Amino acid sequence: MNEPILIIGDGKAGHVNQSRAFCDSIGRPFVIAEVAYRARCCKALAYLADRCRLRLSALYRFTAPLPPGPFAAVVCTGSTAFYPGKVTARRLGIPVAAILNPRGWRPDFDVILAPAFDNPRPCPNLITLPVNLTSVNPAFYAAGVAAFRERHTWVKPAVGVIIGGPNDTAEMSAGSLRLHLDRLFAASEGSERWVTTSRRTPPEVEALVDSYPFDYKLLFSQNTFNPIPAFVSLCHTLFVTADSTGMISEAVTRGDAAVEILMNLRDPASKFARFVRNLETAGAAHVFNGACAAARTKIDLSPALRAAASRLGIG
């Protein structure tokens, strides 16, 4: 019986999408149950309870009734979801997988899938990944390409530009991005130019992007369609801002595009910078300096995902 996986989500798209990608990649259906701590102090209490090996479901709540089972396993991504994920799994008597580094929590998950650039603590149940988890299911990308074809027609080879937004270690301003875009346009003569922004892109940056003559343009504030699966599948070169390990991970795991990183990091010692350096060493990406490189090596996540599914007893 192909029982679904229960995803314990925290409402953050970047986290839930990694849980969805795991289920999708191993061919398992899933249902999502979103959780929230009952008060700000409850998350701190959950860390303490976890250290004491206590399973206190009273600390959090599901935002909607838990879907009916049975379930094959629980998958949880992110610090808010880790404790509810393991408590729910133990209550249901099924295995649990943690995606991303569960720093601060006891590593007593059946399997942990964590990116190497996050320096996870070594443990027997850890499977390290060179990038963030992305879908390896060809059907997901085929559907994305089909949806994109309904929206845009092209005849020339295309380059794609994927723009994120600021975070703790990255800046995003119209002034700094203008230099990248000017050099990018100069380096991509003869190609169609496609661009998409994200939910984190500041309004002034979207206004700057809108002022450039892109052949295909999606501003997230105006349209939430996701063209990234099509960009990854169809473009010969992808330009991605360095602030999003998720977008870069997708670019270096699928398609044939050379990947160029538009650097916007403030801290050269951050995990984001370490991530980019590792990809450059592997030949999977190149820091854009006005000229493009043939950084086309693609990273295969399939062996790690099969190993994780096997440890959960669902492979």
List the helices and strands and how they pair.
Blueprint: E1 5-9, H1 13-25, E2 30-37, H2 40-51, E3 60-62, E4 74-77, H3 79-92, E5 96-99, E6 111-115, E7 126-129, H4 138-149, E8 158-162, H5 174-187, E9 192-196, H6 203-210, E10 216-218, H7 228-234, E11 237-241, H8 245-253, E12 258-262, H9 271-282, E13 286-287, H10 302-311
Parallel strand pairs: 1-2, 1-4, 4-5, 5-6, 6-7, 8-9, 8-11, 9-10, 11-12, 12-13
Antiparallel strand pairs: 2-3
What is the compact description of this entry?
The chain has 315 residues and is α/β, with parallel strands linked by helices. The chain has helices at 13-25, 40-51, 79-92, 138-149, 174-187, 203-210, 228-234, 245-253, 271-282, 302-311; strands at residues 5-9, 30-37, 60-62, 74-77, 96-99, 111-115, 126-129, 158-162, 192-196, 216-218, 237-241, 258-262, 286-287.
